[in-house]
Write a structure and sequence with these properties.
Blueprint (H helix, E strand, L loop, with lengths): L21 H13 L5 E3 L11 H15 L5 E4 L5 H14 L3 E3 L10 H8 L1
Parallel strand pairs: 1-2, 2-3
Length: 121
């Protein structure tokens, strides 16, 4: 798959009770698609990715993938402070149909160059 064009970092909308608002998320995706985006990047810092629970991240990814239904590619931010959690969320994103994942370098604890290589492989 070739990624080109505009892939904005999506926000993650919440209800007044601080729950992920799946209805608003789908409305937001429709708005962006209507206005010509070529793809979407979920769960970066704009999308509260580092602050959401694993279950919330899974709901955001699944909701977006199912709603978009192949109209545009979805890049899911699956980077976590734990390599194990990153791998688990990346596999989940692949399973539900995300087109790609975005993985960050471990950022909380100091990591050696060898540790970074192991994280990505």
């Amino acid at each position: 798959m070739k990624f080109e064009g505009i892939f904005p970092p999506a926000i993650t909308p919440f209800t007044k009770d601080e729950e992920v608002d799946e209805e608003k998320l789908t409305e937001y995706l429709d708005f962006l698609i209507k206005h010509g985006i070529h793809g979407i990047f979920l769960l970066g810092t704009n999308g509260e990715g580092p602050l959401l629970t694993s279950e919330e991240k899974e709901r955001v990814i699944k909701t977006a993938v199912e709603h978009v239904n192949g109209k545009i590619p979805i890049i899911a931010g699956t980077g976590c402070t734990s390599t194990k959690e990153t791998v688990k969320l990346s596999k989940y994103a692949e399973k539900v149909g995300a087109d790609a994942v975005h993985i960050v370098t471990p950022y909380y604890y100091p990591v050696t160059q060898n540790g970074i290589v192991k994280h990505y492989t």
